[in-house]
Amino acid sequence: MVDLKVKVHNLEFKNPITLASGTCGFAREMADFFDPAIVGGFFLKGSTLKNRDGNEYPRMAETPSGMLNAVGLQNKGIDYFIENIYPEIKDYDTQLIINVNGSTVEDYIALTEKVNELDKIRGIELNISCPNVKEGGMAFGVSCPGAEMVTREVRKVYDKTLIVKLSPNVTDISEIARAVEGQGADAVSLVNTFLGMAIDAETRKPKLSTITGGLSGPAIKPIALRMVWQVANAVKIPVVGMGGIMNAADAIEFMLAGASVVQIGTAVFKDPTLPVQIINELEDYMLRHKVQSVNDLIGELQI
Amino acid sequence: MVDLKVKVHNLEFKNPITLASGTCGFAREMADFFDPAIVGGFFLKGSTLKNRDGNEYPRMAETPSGMLNAVGLQNKGIDYFIENIYPEIKDYDTQLIINVNGSTVEDYIALTEKVNELDKIRGIELNISCPNVKEGGMAFGVSCPGAEMVTREVRKVYDKTLIVKLSPNVTDISEIARAVEGQGADAVSLVNTFLGMAIDAETRKPKLSTITGGLSGPAIKPIALRMVWQVANAVKIPVVGMGGIMNAADAIEFMLAGASVVQIGTAVFKDPTLPVQIINELEDYMLRHKVQSVNDLIGELQI
Amino acid sequence: MRKFKRMAKKFVADFVVVDNKPLNATNFLIKARSNSVLPTILPGQFVNVEINDAKEIFLRRPFSVFEVDYNQNTISMIVKILGRGSKKLTEIEAGCNISLVYPLGKSFTYPAATDKVLLIGGGSGVAPMLFLAKESGLDKTQVDILLGARTKEDHIDVESYSKYANLHYATEDGSLGEKGFVTQHSVFVNDLNKYDKIYACGPDGMMRAIAKVAKAADVFCEVSLENLMACGFGVCLCCIEPTNKGNLCVCTDGPVFNINELKW
Amino acid sequence: MRKFKRMAKKFVADFVVVDNKPLNATNFLIKARSNSVLPTILPGQFVNVEINDAKEIFLRRPFSVFEVDYNQNTISMIVKILGRGSKKLTEIEAGCNISLVYPLGKSFTYPAATDKVLLIGGGSGVAPMLFLAKESGLDKTQVDILLGARTKEDHIDVESYSKYANLHYATEDGSLGEKGFVTQHSVFVNDLNKYDKIYACGPDGMMRAIAKVAKAADVFCEVSLENLMACGFGVCLCCIEPTNKGNLCVCTDGPVFNINELKW
Ligand SMILES: Cc1cc2nc3c(=O)[nH]c(=O)nc-3n(C[C@H](O)[C@H](O)[C@H](O)COP(=O)(O)OP(=O)(O)OC[C@H]3O[C@@H](n4cnc5c(N)ncnc54)[C@H](O)[C@@H]3O)c2cc1C
Ligand SMILES: Cc1cc2nc3c(=O)[nH]c(=O)nc-3n(C[C@H](O)[C@H](O)[C@H](O)COP(=O)(O)OP(=O)(O)OC[C@H]3O[C@@H](n4cnc5c(N)ncnc54)[C@H](O)[C@@H]3O)c2cc1C
Ligand SMILES: Cc1cc2nc3c(=O)[nH]c(=O)nc-3n(C[C@H](O)[C@H](O)[C@H](O)COP(=O)(O)O)c2cc1C
Ligand SMILES: Cc1cc2nc3c(=O)[nH]c(=O)nc-3n(C[C@H](O)[C@H](O)[C@H](O)COP(=O)(O)O)c2cc1C
Ligand code: FES
Ligand code: FES
């Protein structure tokens, strides 16, 4: 038997295969397909303080080996989550991490304080990298001062595991990672989507209502992998890696590059049972390669 | 008949379909497949002052809808070009633009001065965005001061058309575009490749000798298109667009986003005659949409 | 091997294509068999289909269920060639595997035993309407089906459904049935109030036109909406439709909506 | 329509697959016909093949030419299943289109009329060796072919070539011909100096082993190299091999190199 357990700060994951925020709903939707206890954890859909309708239709466009989305953080607000969703999912035997989003630092703080009360949510993923909202979102995540400020203020009110989710739309992502590490982040997760665009040549119009949107899927994998590797070499805190993971080999590559835990995002749209398959294949790989613990894969790129 | 002619500063292109630097050799190689006079122009392989051996093998890795390369500007140096290659290609009835690369500003200046003497090279593409060299290259292209400095110094010694090729590996590409515009660039071209990485999960080694390399191909198209659109909205000088163009629809999308001329790069590896097909399909599109001149497509995105 | 403990409400599985036959120039009937027993699948629900071996097609494509055979474990769908994915799908050969996510979405509200109903289908929207006609349990006298298409050639042959319903046709060029849009057809124009329920599936424009008249006439009316979907099971929030309850997902809160919910 | 004025040295065209037959468990012979007259194609040259309908395969795959029939306008190649692209290629059916870029690379230097030659092929490296044996114009007595493989099953049947050359086999398990690597085979170990020219194609390790001995024995020796290629026609500079003249492209300066040029 191989040992799949891995820790990110205080958070114990039964295995390193988790689901990315915005692509696994509030975990319930995935429970229609598989037992949530199988996977390492769920990074729940991005929540905001108040209800958000999100952007107008159309919100997505298919691209070569990927897709653009312009959802814009549609959600019913944190109170709705606490009252209506949390009770239903809180006893899932897996890690539930909430993805929090604000337009202002005050939003982030208020949200975090509410989330702090939830027993079964042992960590937050601070999203300072959403490219699909007009205010806040990525604006914080693309500069060191912005990223530092949000991290510092949230850190003051939160003492469970704080994971800061980084934007790839920057010149030097390891600089931002170091900045949030300096402000007390317990881990970083990367990457969020790349700002992209699609046009319909026939109608000469943008394909998304918002003109630009976030690119995800295998298309971005080479860039995401490079960033995980750079960041893992730049910080001491654990790295949660994602971006285009479609199979166990991809997941292993991210771990070799330095990710302790990986998130499966867009791939579940193609196959919602994929995370389960990846766990099985990861076990097979470890048996075949005589790797005892997943910890022996993390950052073990041979160069 | 439709009018395909388009101008970038003083450079007249008989049509907007050109070939990207590093993917069309020195045009001769493409002449094995089609008459070079058919296309708008060739952006010749990146040249340096002295001979460069480039990076070690392996230099490429296939990725979903794209590829990574780590060529590292292998070329025999500008003198070899002037003596042995230029005479052979100088009478091609099309625009020949040379792509110049330096490790230092002095390199760029020396190179430009030599190129200035070549009658049939009416423009240079200043590559400040190569991700595959240890010194110079992208280092200049990812900060405004760096980009400004090279542009300013080269501008002093060059009065034909100066196109500056931008790196997409930045937080705000329109800022860099404005910076080089401010220093007298006649046009900008974008995007160069994205810094990416590939790992072989079985051997646990990087797939490239240099660990990281440049990502190109359709995978990057949505990001490249977004950047062209942002830059076209930020500067007054013409924009030369590229990144994953595989067919006429892609080329048209870049023009709608604001590119006056487009470059076909990686796609020619799949089909070296593609630029010719794209010109034909562009004509068809214009006839079908009753577009008289390509100039009526440039920047004509309907929003 | 980790055991896959199914939570058993939705599934992903490879089916084997047992039949793929052209219904006319652009519509194909594809029937696929599962190895496992099928869950209940109702009219209006859909499946999300992976397109095999197609370069540059990344996501699945949604198609309404047209027929379910619980003895044979087969699901059928009518696929109209629209773009690259549907084209490729219609080229699949019997014997090939095809991956489906199923069953997805909410079904139409079943009519009451005494209801008189009008089913309106346009384009590939016929599929769920025929499915509903068959499954409704109503007598043929209670069910009218109105099908709209551009020309006679665009209609697919549904004569076998005349045992479940009275068939009416509208074509834009008058080559079959009455000339004009479905909303100009006599059963729609004259007799709307004799129906207890109207169900419709088809292009957006048609749905809106029907909804407008039905709303004015205050008749119960459900429409099935098409929409760009990334996941099909409610996690991506790409497939929204603005409603009285805010933006709802067409894939889970729909694709069937009561017109009174919609902001049309 | 703009006229496509061919510069006529290299081509991109759709061929029709006329035959695809398994030679053993992992090797297939694929023959494809062109609509146009073929240019001269020589042993050692290769074609770059587009893999149809394969998700996640972006670039073409290079394969050596095994046979050319100028009457039928066909090119044949031997494809060994290595990874995803070659696997997919071996599944192509007769009648399908396949796009080739051709002819690519430099051929082997033809032997002089009086030369005695040894051709050594390993794995899929047999293809150009058999092509060369046939095209060399030499008498059978002048040509020895030595083929290496892991086991008898890995060898493909090349008996028909015994009219052009004397066939010798090496297998690692001794199940066909002599046991061991080609470089341990008696024709190689004992008789190297009786050959005027040695030609080899196969895995990198085999090429290096042969080159080492040939160099020591000071015999003329050309080897064909395999390498990761993006373009196949000399523009990407990905396929380099360090040589006395610097980094050369395997696709245009090779794939055939004289061992004295190489930095081995
Ligand atoms: C719930 C549901 C049920 C459906 N049932 C059926 C059915 O039974 N039979 C059938 O033939 N089709 C059905 N469709 C439509 C079908 O999903 C699309 O025709 C298909 O996805 C098109 O894929 P493509 O690759 O051929 O087109 P693409 O090449 O992806 O697109 C071609 C063009 O059509 C547009 N388009 C594609 N899909 C949609 C869509 N869903 N809504 C609006 N515009 C779109 C694209 O934007 C593009 O302009 C259904 C759709 C939904 C959401
Ligand atoms: C000039 C030339 C002639 C060739 N002639 C033949 C031939 O006649 N018959 C034949 O069967 N094969 C031939 N090959 C090899 C053939 O091109 C590869 O087997 C094929 O490209 C593998 O593609 P794939 O998608 O199956 O493998 P992939 O899935 O792409 O790769 C599988 C593994 O093999 C490695 N690999 C793939 N291609 C090469 C390569 N060219 N060199 C080294 N490692 C590689 C990859 O890095 C990977 O680890 C030739 C190659 C060259 C360069
Ligand atoms: C439809 C969609 C919605 C998303 N919503 C969120 C979100 O609410 N919060 C967040 O941090 N990331 C969000 N993401 C980003 C993903 O979590 C992930 O970072 C990104 O998609 C890259 O991973 P992938 O390529 O595996 O999908 C979303 C992505 C998609 C495709
Ligand atoms: C193999 C290879 C070599 C390249 N060499 C150069 C170069 O020498 N100079 C340069 O400016 N860009 C170079 N590029 C970048 C391309 O010109 C182009 O900017 C990039 O590939 C994006 O376009 P594409 O996706 O159409 O290929 C190279 C790209 C590739 C794939
Ligand atoms: S398609 Fe993803 S939520 Fe409906
Ligand atoms: S494969 Fe491109 S230069 Fe050889």
List descriptors:
heterotetramer, A: 303 residues, alpha/beta, TIM Barrel, 8-stranded parallel β-barrel, 4-stranded antiparallel beta sheet, 10 helices, 16 strands, 21% strand, C: 264 residues, mainly beta, Elongation Factor Tu (Ef-tu), domain 3, Rossmann fold, 2 domains, 7-stranded antiparallel beta sheet, 7-stranded mixed beta sheet, 4 helices, 13% helix, 33% strand, globular, disordered N terminus, binds flavin-adenine dinucleotide, binds flavin mononucleotide, binds FE2/S2 (inorganic) cluster, pyrimidine biosynthesis (chains A, B), Dihydroorotate dehydrogenase (chains A, B), oxidoreductase (chains A, B)
The CATH architecture term of chain A is: Alpha-Beta Barrel
Tell me the name of the CATH class of chain A: Alpha Beta
Q: What's the oligomerization state?
A: heterotetramer
State the secondary-structure class of chain C: mainly beta
**Count of helical segments of chain A?**
10
Shape of chain A: globular
For the sheet with most strands of chain A, the description reads:
8 strands, parallel, barrel
The amount of beta strand of chain C, in percent, is 25-35%
CATH topology of chain A: TIM Barrel
- CATH architecture annotation of the largest domain in chain C: 3-Layer(aba) Sandwich
Pattern of helices and strands of chain A: EEEHEEEHEHEHHEHEEEEEHEHEHH
Cofactor (chains A, B): FMN
Subcellular location (chains A, B): Cytoplasm
Catalytic activity (chains A, B): (S)-dihydroorotate + A = orotate + AH2
InterPro entries (chains A, B): Aldolase_TIM, DHO_dehydrogenase, DHOD_1B, Dihydroorotate_DH_1, Dihydroorotate_DH_1_2, Dihydroorotate_DH_cat, Dihydroorotate_DH_CS, Dihydroorotate_DH_I
